[in-house]
Amino acid sequence: MGILRNLFGKKQWVAPQKRDLVVADGHVEKRVMDRLVSMLRDPISPCRNAAMEALGAMGDERAVQPLISALRAEDQDIGGNFSKGFHALAAIDTPDSINYLESFSRDEGVSTLNRREASEVLKERQRPRQETPVTDGELMADLKKSAAKEFAAKDLPALLAILQDKSMDERLRVLSPYEIITRGDTATEAVLPLLNHDDDYVREEAAWIVGELRATSAVDPLIAVLRNDSDLKVVATAAYALGEIGDARAVDPLIQGLGADDADTRLSCAKGLALLGEIAVEPLLGALLSDDWKTKLGAIYSFRGWGSQPPPPLRDPRATDELIRIVGDSREHQYVVANACQALGTIGDRRVIGALAGRLRDNDAKIREYAARALAEYFNLYKQATSKPEVR
Q1: Residue 299: C-alpha distances to residues 267, 271, 285 (Å)
Q2: Quick check: 208 and 174 in contact, CB under 8 A?
Q3: What is the DSSP secondary-structure string of 171-186?
Q4: Apex CA 340: angle with CA 137 and CA 56, to 5°?
């Protein structure tokens, strides 16, 4: 619960603007499209799926017929690739691609599921985008309002008692931290001992509270939690809290956590380092050069980001150079390469296209898939920032 709440109210990752994208001439090398088209015949379904997604993001009409041929070859009993293919055709948006979707949606010789999917894609294409998603900040504000209404008459000791009482109504336990954080420095002093509580849930909530309060007095206790606590949720929340507080003392412990055996711990430490921002960049660049693949993978997370979820990824041209080198190095661990591909997809640098294209024929299916998905991400960012690229 605590680590999910850490997502509320934080800055969202925003796609680079046109001025941030380094694209020399607006052209995409034809070999990239050719390799993606070849990948439509990949024996591994997720790879075909990713290739369809990338071709749709590129938006070139020359991909229409290969996409249609690929859909005709797909097993009618398996619907996943049809959805990606239909969306790709709708994104390219030529008369041929739309005609195919319309024809498919009326074809009684295909499965009802896939026919319905084609109809839905056509409806989405015509439907104006009016939805306004609820932001994490709005969710956080609502929770604070609910807590204020519930606990307005409660003093701090009473709130702490509710948090620690296992017999208490679960809703009240969940809401109590949102009111505790309104009590400021007084709350910090009272909550710090709870980092050693025997209840995992209480320790997790205590870590979240001191992180929200940006309590520098909590840095050393949180580092102790990060290194010694046996509960992975508590460790994750402590890592995030250290990032929230922003104290340089947290850098080395979080860097050490990148090499943890547990994947969730590596991920949490990477998020904490991304939250620390500039003070973490140099140590993370060093971690990218580590001989330990787990440490290197953890560092990549900080430069990769988490999609629309906070924190936003760190950016440094030296990291881009190293990520490109990693993707091109056949000696690197497969997980390292796959996640480096993901990271490159979020960076507006034309050089990443060639690096990612070089992995579309990799022997490892996961790397092929991640490289194609990263190209889709890159071209989607490109389309948001400038006009549709041409293929020569």
Answers
A1: 9, 10, 8
A2: no
A3: HHHHHHHHHHGGGTHH
A4: 75
